[in-house]
Specification:
With 442 residues, this protein is α+β, with helices and mostly antiparallel strands. It is 52% helix and 16% strand. The strands form 3 sheets. A 5-stranded antiparallel beta sheet has the order 2-1-5-4-3. It has a 5-stranded mixed beta sheet with strand order 7-9-10-12-11. A hairpin with a 3-residue loop joins strand 3 and strand 4. It is rod-shaped and about 160 Å long. The two termini are 24 Å apart.
Length: 442
């Protein structure tokens, strides 16, 4: 699905965006809570350590246990590196730990409670009147702990997010596959293919839609069948009186003596013959417009070509003028309506015979790839005329008789079949003539 309005793309975009938002928001909130907990626990530990140290510091200030003082401050630097000092309200440092030579003690205010800057967190408490105990914790340890915790929270998200999106994509694609199948089946139905759809694999949500489409196809197919039957009946009803009139006129021509009356009778006979051909073309056009084209089952086009050529060869004016070339193509199976293919082929062959040189046979070639070419010998058709020959009642610069409907009907039928019609002049491999090439896909 490359269409920007695709349901699959929208679902993937919305669900993927929502998933991404949740997966980012959840670890962010967790990291924020973890940071607060680390700070609160560290502050509690800092305050507890200060309170633990106060009795000992008071004894030191009073001159007791001085020798044991240096062993009391925690020095396990892997977890904490506290620094402390005891300072009076005049700024005189009474006790300092660790020893001198390190960075200056943070300049925290002499008031009870916590204070912090970019590098230290300091807890201050007044342990005697005007004497304050300050315990400072470098923030590097907290930051390292928070960074590691955040990494452990975000790392699974970064690893699992692409996998989650891939799973979303697969699940949505599999869930929407019946919709794609339904779309393809409906899209394949047109005027040349009105066969019912297979309802077996559609889910419960789509089965009613497919059933409704099938009912619509049934009604449309019935209407087209009625129209086709009307066209066939009309053809029969029109052909019979026209053929009878031609026969009567031919008999009249034979009985009349030579003269002006016989000449007028011959003119009427030719006019009736032209009317018969025009009626035949109009009825074929009606059949083509009724949607004949595709079929539910395949037929052998080579056999149809042979039958059509044999039928044309029986006509005196076409005897000896057709050459069939099916070398290497004994069968050519395609799902094509046999009547539609007959109309298509007959119009192309008759067009080639009518407008080709009578002394050079018209060649009908069938190839295994579904290409059927009808080529004749004759004048080259100019390119501007060639492009307009498939229009209704369009005729080239030719003195030959014709209705101008043959190529139009052929072009309409080949579209119903789903193939293509190519006109070329001169014919391929020749310096003259005209060639009609039809390609019928499988």
């Amino acid at each position: 699905m490359t269409n920007s309005n695709s349901m699959t793309r929208k679902l993937i975009s919305w669900l993927g965006g929502a998933t991404l938002l949740v997966w980012i928001a959840a670890p962010t909130i967790a990291a924020f809570i973890f940071c607060n907990n680390v700070n609160e626990s560290s502050d509690d530990l800092l305050q507890a350590s200060a309170e633990y140290r106060e009795p000992e510091l008071i004894k030191v200030l009073n001159g007791k246990h001085v020798d044991q003082y240096n062993n009391h401050l925690p020095t396990y630097k892997k977890y904490w590196t506290y620094r402390e000092q005891v300072i009076n309200k005049y700024g005189v440092v009474l006790i300092s730990e660790p020893e001198e030579g390190q960075q200056p003690f943070p300049d925290a205010p002499l008031s009870n409670g916590f204070w912090g800057n970019a590098d230290y967190r300091v807890y201050t408490e007044e342990i005697q009147d005007g004497v304050y105990h300050q315990l400072a914790e470098p923030l590097d340890g907290r930051r390292t702990t928070i960074a590691k915790g955040a990494l452990f929270v975000f790392l699974p998200t970064l690893v699992l997010l692409p996998f989650s999106l891939a799973v979303w994509w697969i699940v949505i694609r599999r869930s929407l596959r019946p919709i794609e199948v339904l779309r393809q089946q409906i899209g394949s139905r047109d005027g040349g293919n009105l066969s019912p759809m297979d309802l077996g694999d559609f889910p419960a949500e789509l089965a009613p839609i497919a059933a409704s489409v099938n009912r619509l196809l049934d009604r449309l197919r019935a209407a087209l069948e009625a129209e086709r039957e009307f066209a066939a009946n009309s053809a029969h009803e029109l052909r019979t009186p026209i053929a009878g009139s031609i026969a009567q006129m031919q008999r009249l021509v034979a009985e009349l003596p030579n003269g002006s009356a016989k000449m007028r009778a011959r003119g009427i006979e030719q006019a009736l013959s032209s009317l018969g051909r025009l009626v035949e073309k109009v009825l074929q056009l009606a059949q083509a417009e009724s949607g004949v084209g595709m079929a539910d089952h395949a037929i052998d086009l080579v056999r149809s070509v042979r039958l059509e050529i044999d039928d044309l060869r029986k006509k005196p004016q076409y005897a000896g003028r057709l050459h069939l070339n099916v070398d290497g193509c004994t069968t050519l199976m395609r799902k094509v309506d046999v009547d539609a293919f007959g109309i298509l082929l007959r119009n192309l062959i008759e067009n080639a015979l009518i407008h080709g040189l009578p002394t050079v046979p018209t060649t009908v070639s069938v190839q295994t790839d579904g290409t059927i070419a009808i080529a004749n010998a004759g004048p080259v058709v100019p390119l501007p005329d060639l492009e307009g020959l498939t229009k209704r009642f369009s005729r080239g610069a030719t003195p030959a008789a014709g209705s101008g409907l043959g190529l139009h009907i052929a072009n309409m039928v080949i579209q119903r079949i789903g193939g293509s019609l190519e006109l070329a002049s001169p014919a391929r491999g020749r310096n003259d003539g005209f060639e009609a090439i039809i390609r019928i896909p499988q």
